[in-house]
Amino acid sequence: GPVAVAYGAPPALAVTAGAVSGVAVRVVNAGSERWDKVLPAAPIMRVEAPGADQLIALPARLVATWVSAAGLAVPEPVTVFLGKTVAEPGGISSVLVELTAPATPGSYLVLLDVLSPSRGPLSSLGSAPAIIRVTVGEVPDPTPPPIPVPPKLVE
Question: CA of 94: how far to CAs of 57, 75, 127, in Å?
């Protein structure tokens, strides 16, 4: 279609409650239209050189949203700006999304969607969001197990 996205993201993650994990995501503009929004530059931002470009482009963003089917508390969505190259049809951007895991162990989803400044969420236009299934485990006990004391030898 004219507006479409493809994602390269891990299908599943296993993390510790409250831990921060960097998740590599690849985003491809798989449609035939641009995602960014081009606006005239504000007078203060204009370059007065002859032939200078008097336009600015607002980039698309990748939004990662936590979901709990069990109704557990989830962290706020994380937003990462995508590079200029992904705005054009066929463009690709690779980003690292820093996700903080929920505090409560359980099963969660992270939905990845592109938010275009000119079109809004691309999922609302028919492009499926990427889904990462996340298993959040208990925080390991920081106390090491006791070291067994060998029995005393009787002579």
Answer: 19, 23, 18
67-105 burial, b for 16+ CB within 10 Å, e for fewer? ebeeebebbeebebebeeebbebebebebebebebbeeb
pTM (2 decimals)? 0.80
Q: What is the DSSP string of 35-61?
A: -SEEEEPPGGG---STT---EEEEPPE
The amino acid occupying position 70 is A
DSSP state of 98: E
pLDDT tens per residue across span 37-65? 766 766 555 455 555 556 667 889 999 99
Query: Would you say 12 and 132 are in contact if contact means Cβ atoms under 8 Å apart?
Result: yes
Whether the Cβ atoms of residue 7 and residue 130 lie closer than 8 Å to each other: yes
Yes or no: say if 113 and 129 are a contact pair by the CB < 8 Å rule.
yes
Q: Which helix (H) or strand (E) holds 94?
A: strand 92-100
